[in-house]
Amino acid sequence: MTLLSRLKDIKAKNEEPGKVQIPQKKSPLDLGGVEINNSFGNYYLIEKEYSLANLTFPAVSKELLTRNLRLLQGIGPVTEREMREQGIDNINQLSGEVRWQYEVEIVSECILKGKIKELRRRGACDYELLSFFKKDDLVFLDIESTGLWANQPLFLVGILYKDGGKLKLQQYLARNLQEEKPLLADLYKKLRNFKVMVTYNGKKFDAPYIEGRWVEHRFFYRLKHYQIDLLYHARRHFKGKFPNCRLITLEEYLLNFKREGDIPGYLIPQTYYKFVKSGDPALIKDIIRHNALDLVSLARVLYIVQPCINAKDFIAATK
Fold it and tell me: What is the mean pLDDT of the chain?
């Protein structure tokens, strides 16, 4: 049989009734979310609510700042110890002394007017500065990306925040790389409603990554939030006491919770690309769950911002 005869035979078979191959449309992504459309395109948004009890917001008074003698320039550890031995435990007690009067006035004005950057520059810690904020000011953030540097796309940004009497989880998902730009546009609009961003290694990773992706898409936005990175506090409290300071380790030791079947971080980029290629929702569900668990744990371990903490007492306080 000649090649021409074979081709005619194949054509005849394809034209027989019932032999025509009709492309099948992919079923809509079913992850409990909705498709969002804006001027830049579409993306997928997943929402969920949690009990407000998951947020361990420490009760802090601005009076705590007045007890930090080191906010006054010229007072270090030695001078502070000597002053406390003399019964001086509040900067207002030094207002009548010529040497410290000017410094006391500056710090008092900073506290009164909420000059957080200046107080932080002088050495105020996150715990003390939380006294300027409310629960409604906080947003917990965690991203999932396709690489370690901002020249690679991100595809999932999860945020958790107080909404009335609940904690609301929102996960912004790019179902393909084209959806990253509309996702990032709406993410900025949402984040600007908050004053404090809480992350885990976010100062070095999540925050600069988001800003880098904004620049990539010609969105010249900046994160102007007061940032609290809980990894720093975890290392300060638990380095050498726990096997490591990963968030899942804190969950196990502080929250008495051990993840089952959690996807390892190094598998997330390649799993996402498989999802983009196949459209199989089962591939992305584990990543979404991983992201949600990170955010809820952040809210539960926020209490570690306090300067002194006993792990045993912390466990009791978060049960």
Answer: 90
